[in-house]
Design brief:
- This protein is an alpha+beta fold and about 110 residues long.
- Helix 1 crosses helix 3.
- It has one domain: Aspartate Aminotransferase, domain 1.
- Strand 1 and strand 2 form a beta hairpin.
- It has three helices and six strands; from the N terminus they run αββββαββα.
- Strands 1-2-3-4-6-5 form a six-stranded antiparallel sheet.
Length: about 110
């Protein structure tokens, strides 16, 4: 399944103007990186992937509609998946994009 291009455009609109922003195809989707660190991606499996502080992962999973991103059968600490039905409304998407961008900004920039 290809990533949702409309969702990618919605994300692009929210991150436009972010300093150090780049786009890159990753994980079968389109990722938005800040300073070379992934912040959020339109997932090839639908919905979005969001990079968050690993220390906040468990709490976000228990208090939101997010669930851990699983790669090769292993949950990835600090990486969350949010299904498409939970980012249909702008306010829902904004919340997740802001979380991802805030965390990506907190990391050292990659060259």
């Amino acid at each position: 399944m290809a990533y949702d291009e409309d969702l990618a455009d919605r994300i692009r609109g929210l991150v436009a103007g972010e300093k150090g922003l780049t786009e890159q195809k990753m994980f079968g989707g389109l990722a938005f990186l800040v300073g070379g660190n992934m912040a959020v991606a339109a997932s090839g499996q639908g919905g979005i992937l969001v990079r968050v502080d690993p220390a906040a992962s468990d709490k976000l999973v228990s208090t939101t509609n997010a669930h851990p991103m699983v790669m090769r059968g292993r949950a990835m600490e600090g990486w969350l998946r949010v299904d498409a039905e939970h980012v249909r409304e702008k306010r829902q998407l904004v919340k997740w994009v802001e979380r991802g961008v805030t965390y990506a900004r907190s990391l050292p920039a990659k060259s």
